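Pilot study result, target chain (212 residues):
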Amino acid sequence: MQWNLVIPVKPLALAKSRLADTAAGELRPGLALAFAQDTVAAALACPAVRDVAVVTDDALAGRELAALGARVVPDEPRTGLNGALEHGAAFVRAARPRSALAALNADLPALRPLELARVLDAAAEFPRAFLPDAAAIGTTLLAVGPDGELLPAFGPDSRDRHRVSGAVELRLDAVDSVRQDVDTGEDLRAALALGVGPRTAAAAARLLIPGQ
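Predicted structure:
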């Protein structure tokens, strides 16, 4: 099965506020962009991915991610993360009515294409499925087959909310790069230990990160 991914990217100036203890305010937008670039580049290199739609109103992010090969969709609803995902899913389905869809976080800088393929292959066995994040509280990927609705419920405690909504939780080993999103300095250290993409590596080199 070939998948169409929807990746939401919030305005860079507002992104990654919880990294304040690790990255100064002027560095966080560049770091958030680097996360998104490495995530999108890895997703596009995944053999199970047909294409990637990025939902964003940030002009710089849109230009940079389009240059990598993503399709950029303006965030017309401007109603938050789940509204952006629903809008992106509708955009994809308008062109491909029976597309298999997956919502993917934009802050997976250690993402490895073959690990993503393994997760998507596992998701294909169910009408709707999700992968919890490394903290086992949130969600990094939500997938739905050709005949289903995405019904995203991202945000605090999204693991529980996706499970209650009927999505199947994928329990996979050795897919750490798909689970390691980055919200805090500790998350960033964990991603760096896994091995991040080149843009994040360059951006992180400008930071003073305890423990590295």
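One observation from the pilot: The chain has one domain: 3-204. A full batch analysis is planned for the follow-on phase.
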